[in-house]
Amino acid sequence: MSAPSKSSASWSSAHARQSFYTGFYEVLPTLVATSMWAFVTGIALVKSGLTETMATLMTVLVYAGSAQLTALPLIVSGAPLWLVFAAGFVVNIRFVIFGAAMHPYFRRYSWQKRLALGYLSGDIVFVLFMSRYAEAREKGTQDQLWYFLGVIVPGWISWQLCSLIGIYLGALVPASWSLDFAAILALMAIIIPLVNTRPMVISVCVAGLVAWLGQPLPLRLGLVAAVAAGVLAGVAVERFSKKRRPR
Predict the structure, then answer these.
(1) How far apart are CA 136 and CA 146, in angstroms?
(2) How many H helices and E strands in the chain?
(3) Nearest 5°: phi and psi at 28?
């Protein structure tokens, strides 16, 4: 992909708008699942005992469903603050891996901009962005930034909106609907079609197995182990496949 001109950096550039809308249209199908997940998280925040105001602040400031759901039982049980933060960090440690993978694309920007982009990022963003630009010859172009913005902006808006609906209107939903399980199924419907190579298949299988075996571990460390095992398995299979290819 060629380097963009300076004019393509602004919204007035047709090239920038095209990249933004490409990201916007690609993230749209995933918003159904993430919005449902946000709605379930909003309900869980209030049912755990937080006031509506506290739940609103938490969903806006944290913007991480897994971290919120991990912290809730610790907050309710009166766990020390350091343990709440440590558990949230452990659950989201996968973003350290994501950040390292995406560093070449955004290292040219100031730390303030990278901090803002990191806050707005998420799992779906990483999957879509890397599926499109992982093999890009040039990294850090304006096209990539506008595509990234096209994915994260609607994702953040839909998450916050649906989480707030869950906080303020979730009490109207019957408990027998099992919305949390429906949200998981919706996320699987998005992720599974993207698993289209042998390393990815092995990575997902290993991660799923380790996550299942790691359920008894405290602080959801099984999730961390699953992420690490999945990444290592995928890298190992990819390197092994390259060695076997004829030169």
Answers:
(1) 15
(2) 11, 0
(3) -55, -50
